Each structure stands twice: as C-alpha cells, then as structure tokens.
C-alpha cells in the first residue's frame, strides 16, 4: 500500500521496543500521534511509553494482526525484525522502510552487493559459506575480520583473525554459518550519514557525523563544521543518497563509513532506521532523526534540517553504573546536569549490565571548543575514558 499523508491524531506503529523505538514514540507523540509498539518484552523501553504495547513475538500472526488493526502505518526500529513480518504487514498497511530494503540491510553479503551496484567502494571481502570458499580465501584479505552475515550488532558476531588457521577456527566457532571475511583496514576515522527519503523520492540529510568506537560499540559522536574534510563529508552524503535511492528507500537510513589513512572513503554498513550516531540531532538540530522518521512514515513534508549548535554525544553504557563493583550505583547526574548545555537521555532500562546502552548525553554550545571542554568534564564525572 502506498503512503498518503497521515494526519496527527492517527496511530503510528513500530516493530521493536528498544531505545530507538522509544525515541520514535516520543517524537510521534509530541506531534499528536498515538503510538503502538510490538515487542515481546514487557519491560521494553518503547513499550512502556507507548499508548499500545502488543507483547508478542515479531512473527506471531495475532500480534501482527493487532498491529495492522490499530496502526495507520508501521515502521521498524531494529534491523533484525524478520523481513517476512514487515511483508505481511505491508499487505494491509503502509510499511516504511519496506521489507525488501530491510532484508538487504540484514545480510552483509547482500548489503555489500548493493553498495557495489551503487558504485560505492567497501573493504575488500570474501563470502564464506562453504569449506571450499574458506580454502579459496585470497591471502591478501588477512589479517581480517570475520563477520557473520546476519544478526550482528555492537561488534557481536565478529572475530579478528591474522592467519588461515585462526580464520578456520573462527568460522568453526560461528557454527559454520554464512560469513564475510573483510580485510582489516587502517582506519584514520569513522563517520556516518543519515538521510530521510519520502515516498515521493524527496530526500534530506543530517551533516556527516564523526564517530569513535570502543570495543566495537559507538562511544562518542562529534558533529560540527569541519569535523571531516568538507570534500570527504560531501562524498559520504552523496554516497548515502545514492544508496537510499538505489533501494527506492522510504524512511530514515544511516550509512557508516571508514576514512582510511590515505583519506579514501570506504562504506562499512547501513542501518534501515535511525542510528545511535544520529542521537545528537535531538538537541543540536532543528529537526531530529526521529522527527524525520515520523515525517517519512506519515507522509509529511521533509525539510532540510539545520544544525543550530555544535554537538557531542556520549554513549552511557551500563559500565557507568558499575564503577564501585557489581552493585549498581546511580551516576552523579546532578553534577553532570550542572554543566551548561548538557541534555540527558535515559532509556528507562531496569538493569545496567556492562556494555548495555542505557542512555546518552548530548552536549551543545556556542563553539566546538566549549562543547568539547564540557564533554570532557562530563567524562571525568561519569568515569568515561576521555576522547
Ligand atoms: P553496529 O551494528 O553496532 O554498528 P556491528 O557489530 O555491525 O556494529 P561493524 O560496524 O561491522 O559492526 O564493526 C564495528 C567496528 O569494528 C567498526 O565501527 C570499526 O571500528 C571496526 N571494524 C569493522 N570492520 C573493520 C575493517 N574491515 N577494518 C577495520 N576496522 C573495522
Ligand atoms: Mg557498525
């Protein structure tokens, strides 16, 4: 079904109830929509703030039926929502992004083939789905990273390998599921770009985001004029637009890139949804990535967002609650919030295990120097390694 404008007052649905769903729900509710979340977890961050929470598995026909009944259009917040569930919903309601685009983003092999079709270079790689393909891996792909083709996130499902023996053992350890081996590249930096594309093909973007990962998890995003060389930022934005266009995409799409030591830009992966690296836009831009998701889903006009403040986002992982041992201790939010330009976002998760994304802190200000100084003070208060 195609998307026609859905006015506020209607109900918008989202598959998945994590923090991205929660922030979508907040943005939709702010504009006067009702919301419905489908997620099996009773304590899901989005389910707990939504008008409707359907607690079933993603492929449960009754759950999907309920969602299609209550919601005028449906989006997704989590790329591992089974594509067949989206396809089933699309028989009855507009679904954005569509099952085809999500299916491509769910599979690293298909994703890389799509990047190739769009003329965007990715790291040299080989598919490993059989013992023969394992034996045929060209030696120049080592050292490399073996990534499962499906179901990876936050560095899970990845193993770094230096030799053929390590590669063979690593593939064995995956249970010999379909994988890609990527050559390990010398990274000078990492960046990402978010675009929003409407059903009519109109497209807007957020500025290129400079990202630092720690242990495979995003730690810091910095967005300010000059965070990347302007021609590199433009190249990343253009590449993201052609990737979205090539999918005939509707919704918010994030593409992650590597900047290599020689300055070359290489695409890493895409996410068919808002992305952790775009959270700064909630406080540093006049339109956030979640506002864009609501607009694309509801068929509302897309206007080019304007970044009004330099911004830094710090991810708040469960580790910050565990600085004094295994008993969770609330971080000193009062001291952090005493710093000018700090915006605290917590996702309402009930437990804070190490590595879990509990929230993020956005810092905005008049200049990047001021923002960075405040961010470093916040890091010191919270026990985040300075960047
Ligand atoms: P997420 O979905 O949370 O972004 P993921 O588990 O899908 O993460 P990737 O984005 O593939 O993982 O990789 C995580 C990080 O590992 C990258 O951001 C980068 O820092 C590093 N990395 C991945 N592939 C390579 C590579 N080919 N060369 C060098 N570093 C890499
Ligand atoms: Mg990634």
* Rg over C-alpha atoms, rounded to the nearest angstrom: 21 Å
User: What is the CATH C level class of the largest domain, in words?
Assistant: Alpha Beta
Terminal CA distance reads: 46 Å
Structural domains: how many:
3
Helicity range of the residues? 25-40%
Keywords:
387 residues, alpha+beta, Rossmann fold, Dna Ligase, domain 1, D-amino Acid Aminotransferase, Chain A, domain 1, nine-stranded antiparallel β-sheet, four-stranded parallel β-sheet, 12 helices, binds adenosine-5'-triphosphate, binds magnesium ion
What does this structure look like?
This protein has helices spanning 19-30, 61-70, 83-90, 99-105, 108-117, 131-135, 164-173, 230-246, 281-284, 289-298, 333-337, 368-382; strands at 11-15, 34-38, 52-54, 73-76, 125-128, 144-148, 158-161, 179-183, 187-197, 203-205, 209-214, 217-223, 251-260, 265-271, 311-317, 342-346, 357-364. By secondary structure, it is α+β, with helices and mostly antiparallel strands. The N and C termini lie far apart (46 Å). It has 3 domains: 11-95, Rossmann fold (3-Layer(aba) Sandwich), CATH 3.40.50; 124-183, ATP-grasp fold, A domain (Dna Ligase, domain 1, 2-Layer Sandwich), CATH 3.30.1490; 187-382, D-amino Acid Aminotransferase, Chain A, domain 1 (2-Layer Sandwich). The strands form 3 sheets. Strands 9, 10, 11, 12, 13, 14, 15, 16 and 17 form a 9-stranded antiparallel β-sheet that branches. The protein has a 4-stranded parallel β-sheet with strand order 3-2-1-4, with helices on both faces. A 4-stranded antiparallel β-sheet has the order 5-8-6-7. The longest helix is centred in the middle third of the chain and has 17 residues, at 230-246. The structure holds adenosine-5'-triphosphate and magnesium ion. Magnesium ion (MG) binds at residues 256, 268-269.
């Amino acid at each position: 079904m195609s998307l026609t404008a859905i006015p506020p007052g209607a109900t918008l649905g989202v598959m998945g109830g994590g923090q991205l769903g929660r922030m979508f729900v907040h943005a939709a509710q702010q504009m006067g929509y009702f919301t419905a979340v489908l997620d099996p977890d009773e304590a899901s961050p989005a389910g707990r703030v939504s008008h409707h929470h359907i607690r079933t598995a993603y492929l449960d026909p009754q759950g999907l039926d309920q969602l299609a009944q209550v919601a005028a259009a449906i989006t997704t917040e989590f790329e591992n929502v089974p594509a067949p569930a989206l396809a089933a919903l699309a028989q009855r309601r507009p679904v954005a992004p569509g099952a085809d685009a999500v299916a491509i983003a769910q599979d690293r092999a298909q994703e890389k083939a799509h990047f190739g079709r769009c003329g965007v270079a990715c790291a040299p790689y080989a598919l490993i789905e059989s013992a023969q393909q394992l034996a045929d891996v060209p030696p120049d792909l080592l050292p490399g990273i073996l990534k499962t083709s499906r179901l990876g996130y936050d560095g899970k499902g990845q193993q770094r390998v230096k030799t053929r023996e390590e590669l063979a053992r690593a593939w064995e350890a995956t249970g010999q599921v379909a994988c890609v081996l990527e050559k390990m590249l010398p990274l000078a930096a990492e960046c990402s770009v978010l675009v929003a594309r409407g059903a009519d093909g109109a497209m807007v973007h957020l500025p290129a985001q400079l990202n630092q990962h720690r242990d495979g998890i995003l730690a810091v995003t910095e967005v300010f004029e000059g965070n990347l060389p302007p021609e590199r930022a433009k190249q990343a934005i253009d590449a993201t637009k052609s990737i979205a266009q090539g999918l005939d995409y509707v919704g918010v799409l994030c593409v992650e890139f590597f900047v290599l030591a020689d300055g070359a830009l290489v695409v890493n992966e895409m996410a068919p949804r808002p992305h952790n690296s775009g959270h700064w836009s909630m406080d540093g831009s006049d339109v956030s990535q979640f506002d864009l998701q609501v607009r694309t889903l509801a068929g509302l006009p897309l206007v080019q967002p304007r970044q009004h403040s330099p911004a830094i986002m710090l991810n708040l992982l469960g580790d910050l609650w565990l600085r004094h041992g295994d008993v969770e201790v609330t971080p000193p939010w009062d001291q952090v919030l005493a710093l000018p330009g700090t915006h605290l976002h917590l996702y309402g998760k009930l437990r804070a295990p190490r590595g879990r994304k509990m929230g993020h802190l956005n810092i905005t200000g008049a200049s990047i120097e001021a923002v960075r100084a405040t961010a470093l003070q916040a890091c010191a208060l919270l026990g985040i390694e300075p960047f």
